[in-house]
Design brief:
Layout (H helix, E strand, L loop, with lengths): L1 H14 L17 H12 L14 H4 L7 H5 L12 E7 L4 H18 L3 E3 L13 E4 L4 E5 H12 L4 E8 L2 E3 L9 E3 L5 E5 L16 H17 L18 H6 L6 H11 L3 H14 L3 H21 L2 H22 L1
Helix pairs in contact: 1-2, 1-11, 1-12, 2-9, 2-11, 5-7, 5-10, 10-11
Length: 338
């Protein structure tokens, strides 16, 4: 009975949702069946996430962003993998410590589970000759910084394989996107399938009292999966504390979960045609292998919540309620479009 009550609540929540963007139904009057299913599945994991809280100095304290719902993303013709372009290539650029090499290697494994795409880790390569207008030196740290445009415009597009869903460069050099910026952890192109991430600052301690002993690894995984999400046209999340939320400093990065919120989970599931429960199970297996059972436990709990939705939707009464919700969503979308 508790399971039936839970799914009934999810279905009623879906029926009472605000109308999705008119563009979701503007041409056909229909909603993608996977969108319908994921609308309900994403509600099942809401209890695992906290609403966005903005602190002084955070990304949203200085940046104005509108965010993007799952339904808006699905209707936006995002950049997606294709049958011919399904591989994520990881290209280390520079000279890395043993700890950094481990973080990059595990990031490749993690992204395989996160996005359900094959990931190929290339051998390290040197930085090469950087034009003078795409580098600078910070005097107080005697630190060479490379403008992200060198990677995004000059280097990576020429290296992009024909079968690449994305080409990601990891570098140990500090990065900056423009003259008015002090630095950036990473940057990716929403349509060009290339991105660059820096490990330069990820070993720094922060003022957080609970700074994790695996901070370099965790931060590398967060930056890599976040920026790769941008390469599949996902915008910053402003609704929840989420992996896809923007970060302005390491303390903010550390506060973010190493997982997508309900809205952004549904985006990945839809974009990759990836069953959410299977995704959580694969991510849990990654953490079980790599010595963080507490991470695996939470992921398996999320998988169980998704599976509860799937089981109950198989019952005839739930299916009838589901289709009533579906008709209400379509009617509201069509009305808004007109």
């Amino acid at each position: 009975m508790r399971l039936i009550a839970l799914i009934s609540l999810l279905l009623l929540t879906a029926c009472s949702m605000p109308s999705p963007s008119a563009s979701n139904a503007a041409e056909t009057g229909k909603i993608d069946e996977r969108v319908e299913r994921l609308i309900l599945q994403k509600e099942a994991i809401v209890p695992f996430f906290e609403p966005m809280k903005i602190r002084e100095g955070d990304w949203l304290d200085s940046q104005r962003e509108s965010g993007e719902t799952f339904e808006e993303y699905a209707a936006s013709s995002p950049t997606l993998p294709t049958a011919e372009r399904r591989t994520i290539y990881v290209q280390p650029v520079g000279r890395f410590t043993a700890e950094q090499k481990r973080a990059v290697s595990l990031a490749a494994d993690f992204m395989t589970a996160f996005y359900d795409l094959p990931v190929r880790l290339n051998p390290e390569m040197p930085l090469g000759s950087v034009p003078k207008d795409k580098q600078r030196r910070i005097e107080y740290r005697n630190n060479l910084q490379i403008r992200t445009a060198y990677f995004l415009d000059d280097l990576l597009p020429k290296m992009l394989p024909k079968d690449a869903a994305a080409l990601i460069a990891f570098t140990n050099y500090d990065l900056y996107p423009g003259d008015t910026w002090h630095f950036v952890f990473g940057q990716a192109m929403l349509t060009e399938r290339v991105g660059v991430y820096s490990l330069y600052r990820l070993s720094d301690m922060t003022l957080e009292q609970d700074n994790d002993k695996d901070r370099l690894l965790l931060r590398t995984l967060k930056i890599a999966t976040h920026e790769t999400g941008h390469m599949f046209s996902m915008k910053h999340c402003i609704k929840y504390e989420c992996l896809m939320s923007g970060t302005n400093h390491l303390a903010e990065t550390d506060r973010r979960p190493l997982d997508n919120c309900p809205e952004c989970m549904a985006k990945v599931a839809w974009a990759m045609n990836y069953d959410p429960a299977e995704r959580y199970q694969k991510l849990a297996a990654f953490w079980q292998t790599n010595g963080r059972p507490e991470e695996a436990k939470v992921l398996l709990e999320k998988a169980a919540a998704i599976n509860t939705v799937k089981v109950i939707l198989g019952r005839s009464s739930a299916r009838k309620m589901f289709h009533r919700c579906r008709e209400q969503i379509i009617q509201r979308s069509t009305s808004q479009a007109s």
